[in-house]
């Protein structure tokens, strides 16, 4: 099968990130029904792309000869990875290359590749040889046996990471745990939701508008797709030999953003409680920031070495400023989806007033619970205070959710 006119780059799809039900056939080719399309997203991989294409071609030629295509999707790498890839087309007729100049980002690159793919099964593998190619055969077998999705996992039998630092392991597991709390219906379905090495039946993702942020395309596929049975195959995440990882702190922020977006825009199947746990966590973090603000202002105003103002007056000012701090963060982050739809000043002011009143009531509850618990239940002021803070936090959150940022009112 020759799928290319030599040296042409694929046209980049525009518009929604939606995969067509049936393989695109706007290019006249003999074989419209190839089995497997494997997308290789690349950015600055000029030293890897040649070996990746060679190794994958050799492997797939053996396993499913004439029945696959490789699609390199490069984001206009300054090292001209796309050009190197294009020069390989003559030698590897199943290779197709896309150079994206308008859009950026790993997840959308993968989807753009899938949009032009002709396979019934759509896959993705990193372009830096960190994903061992041999695993492809097992993944394909998983699909053949009936799975909708086959994921290469670091966290099942046979899986692992080669030589990650404790810090990177911790960050990776921490990110997974956070995801489990925010989005259990998605993250709970696979052992390695961070995997960027998997394949899925076209029918499970076709016709759905995907809307990913950042790196973790698998979350999007499970979260929005129609995925039944999932197969997992263990793999060891190898070290990079050439080039370098593009992961920075930005990917962690994007990951959180992605989790929250999925959480807010997809139906969570099999979720018993409707308590908005992600929002609550954000609210709690904001509350914590308020404690620091309160402390700092109290110090500046009342400490004998600074302004030495009376304690009560200082505390009232410090508390008010902390409330204002919390309001700003909650409005911009915790309840961003709600406030974005009501941005006018009078709306904001109204929310601030409500928030303020509710938090003052929260303070009263705090004092009340502290006294009750301390005098009648646990005669330890710190434990009693912890309980009081917890009760007040839940009160603040719940009442603000229902009154200040009314989710049900919008939409
Ligand atoms: N087109 C495109 N655009 N490709 C990109 C971009 C981008 O913006 N950013 C990264 N890539 C490509 C890289 O060239 C590489 O082929 C692949 O995507 C993975 O990027 P790396 O930067 O090498 O990621 P990593 O090795 O740190 O992370 C990998 O590990 C995870 C497991 O923890 C990723 O592969 C994840 O997908 C994987 O799950
Ligand atoms: Mn990598």
Commentary on this structure:
The chain has helices spanning about 50-65, 80-85, 105-115, 135-145, 165-180, 185, 200-205, 215-225, 250-265, 275-300, 310-335, 335-340, 345-375, 380-405; strands at about 15-20, 35-40, 70-75, 95-100, 120-125, 150-155, 160, 200, 210, 230-235, 235. A 7-stranded mixed β-sheet has the order 4-3-2-5-8-6-10. Helix 11 (about 310-335) packs across helix 13 (about 345-375). The model has no long low-confidence stretch (mean pLDDT about 90). By secondary structure, it is of the alpha/beta class. It has 2 domains: about 25-265, Spore Coat Polysaccharide Biosynthesis Protein SpsA, Chain A (Alpha-Beta Complex); about 275-405. The protein is built from 14 helices and 11 strands. Bound molecules: guanosine-5'-diphosphate-alpha-D-mannose and manganese (II) ion.
CATH architecture of the largest domain: Alpha-Beta Complex
CATH class of the largest domain: Alpha Beta
Order of helices and strands: EEHEHEHEHEEHHEHEHEEHHHHHH
CATH H level, superfamily name of the largest domain: Spore Coat Polysaccharide Biosynthesis Protein SpsA, Chain A
Question: Per DSSP, what share of the residues sits in E-state strands of 2 or more residues?
Answer: 5-15%
Average pLDDT confidence is 89
How many individual β-strands? 11
Radius of gyration: 26 Å
What is the approximate shape? Answer: elongated
**Total number of helical segments?**
14
Alpha-carbon distance between the two ends: 50 Å
Main sheet: strands, sense, barrel: 7 strands, mixed
Give the cofactors and ligands.
guanosine-5'-diphosphate-alpha-D-mannose, manganese (II) ion
Question: The CATH topology of the largest domain, please?
Answer: Spore Coat Polysaccharide Biosynthesis Protein SpsA, Chain A
């Amino acid at each position: 099968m020759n799928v290319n006119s030599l040296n042409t780059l694929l046209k980049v799809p525009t518009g929604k990130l939606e995969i067509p039900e049936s393989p695109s056939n706007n290019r006249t080719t003999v074989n419209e029904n190839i089995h497997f399309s494997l997308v290789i997203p690349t950015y600055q991989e000029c030293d890897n792309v040649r070996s990746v294409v060679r190794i994958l071609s050799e492997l797939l030629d053996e396993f499913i000869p004439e029945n696959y295509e490789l699609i390199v999707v490069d984001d206009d790498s300054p090292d001209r990875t796309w050009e190197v890839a294009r020069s390989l087309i003559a030698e590897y007729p199943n290779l197709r290359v896309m150079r994206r100049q308008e859009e950026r980002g790993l997840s959308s690159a993968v989807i753009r590749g899938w949009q032009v793919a002709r396979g019934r099964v759509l896959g993705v593998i990193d372009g830096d040889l960190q994903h061992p190619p041999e695993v492809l055969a097992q993944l394909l077998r998983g699909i053949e046996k009936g799975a909708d999705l086959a994921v290469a996992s670091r966290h099942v039998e046979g899986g692992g990471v080669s030589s990650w630092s404790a810090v990177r392991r911790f960050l990776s597991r921490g990110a997974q745990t956070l995801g489990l709390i925010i989005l259990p219906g998605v993250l709970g379905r696979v052992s390695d939701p961070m995997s960027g090495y998997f394949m899925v039946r076209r029918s499970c993702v076709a016709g759905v508008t995907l809307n990913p942020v950042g790196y973790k395309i698998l979350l999007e596929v499970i979260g929005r797709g129609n995925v039944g049975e999932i197969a997992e195959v263990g793999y060891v995440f190898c070290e990079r030999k050439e080039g370098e990882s593009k992961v920075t702190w930005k990917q962690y922020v994007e990951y959180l953003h992605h989790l929250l977006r999925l959480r807010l825009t997809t139906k969570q199947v099999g979720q018993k409680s409707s308590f908005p746990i992600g929002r609550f966590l954000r609210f709690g973090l904001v509350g914590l920031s308020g404690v620091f603000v309160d402390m700092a202002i109290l110090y500046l105003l009342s400490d004998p070495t600074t302004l030495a103002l009376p304690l009560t007056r200082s505390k009232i000012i410090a508390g008010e400023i902390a409330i204002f701090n919390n309001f700003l963060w909650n409005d911009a982050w915790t309840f961003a989806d709600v406030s974005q739809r009501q941005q006018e000043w009078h709306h904001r002011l109204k929310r601030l007033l409500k928030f303020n009143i509710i938090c003052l009531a929260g303070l009263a509850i705090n004092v009340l619970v502290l006294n009750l618990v301390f005098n009648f239940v646990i005669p330890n002021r710190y434990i009693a205070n912890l309980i009081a803070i917890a009760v007040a936090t839940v009160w603040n959150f719940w009442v603000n959710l229902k009154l200040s940022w009314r989710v049900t009112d919008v939409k």
